[in-house]
Amino acid sequence: MATNQEEVSLLGVVGSPFVCRVQIALKLKGIQYKFFEENLVNKSELLLKYNPVHKKVPVFVHNEKPIAESLVIVEYIDETWKNNPILPSDPYQRALARFWSKFIDDKIGGAVWKSVFTVDEKEREKNVEESLEALQFLESEIKGKKFFGGEEFGMVDIAAIFIAFWVPMVQEIAGLELFTSEKFPKLYNWSQEFMSHPVVKEVLPPRDPLFAFFKARYESLLADSK
Amino acid sequence: MATNQEEVSLLGVVGSPFVCRVQIALKLKGIQYKFFEENLVNKSELLLKYNPVHKKVPVFVHNEKPIAESLVIVEYIDETWKNNPILPSDPYQRALARFWSKFIDDKIGGAVWKSVFTVDEKEREKNVEESLEALQFLESEIKGKKFFGGEEFGMVDIAAIFIAFWVPMVQEIAGLELFTSEKFPKLYNWSQEFMSHPVVKEVLPPRDPLFAFFKARYESLLADSK
Question: Is B69 close to A98, i.e. CB distance below 8 A?
């Protein structure tokens, strides 16, 4: 259980959708924490010590106990701080929340990324097709709901921040149309609703530098392939 | 909560490590269920209806409510039937159990499979290396414990049934040495302990037909590549 003498830290980088998930959860729960900005080109001793397996961010550290993997962290936060629940209390609804969160990681993250940051035309086409197919499942799943979690946002919404904020940015850079209001009107409405939620709005990274970062990466990829 | 009028079904195939995970959980909890054997070449209406997203087994159906994804199902079973707990009660230990279960799925399943069922030599070497590296992390993690879960087996053990039972079989077929008692003595001891546990022993599929099935698949792959 949470006590008054909490030591809560997050090792991350600004601009990572996985780190952002944890930040949304922490903000929703109203938890104060120290943010340690990592340099992924020169990883800190702390990161290597706390996540020797993957050596990746985010790493969440609660009273010196480290946890890696964004969705594992989000569940831990939800189980440790009980206010503003992130997962539903009903076991079946919890299972569905876990299913869709995993779906987003397995079927959308990689496919969208490879749609954008791929030189090979065939590879891109395949990934574009997979991205669209996966997004269609989410379009059906959001139905007429305000959030995936219902009236309040939850685990699936947090997992899907990648779709709301990152996908529009990287598709613009590559001149692709993956996630648009025409193709996925309900999911698009959800994304607007979610990003204007006070909790989410406050933790989203600034768009312009991130856009410039991804654009440079995309252009360097194109240049290398010529 | 569980009631007396339970309808519990499992759509699966004998010989799938993912289906076996669910069977171990059900056996541990002492839950009676109907098993529907799927033909994956000609999938049933029921499977397509209950898992329209992935169209894969296992699908667990509890009182007409379907759940897919083996680890999601195992957590659901643990939350619904409280006897013989599968996940620890402490949130931090739960997070670690989820972390290692995910690690097994992300880092071992695919790498071992591609080590065996790959024609390309470079691709095989890369995957063998990744498999060994990942197994080493589990060798360190099991330490001197009887099970990953401690004195009783839990979520990580269930996730790792693939390593105990399937890996020795497919590596033998391909003439590879991935998971051996010399390379990973502690993990090997764990695997023997786990497979001789009465609950696990009773749900493991018969080895010989499965070995023949994988061998035929391996030989057909080799033949196709000539």
Answer: yes
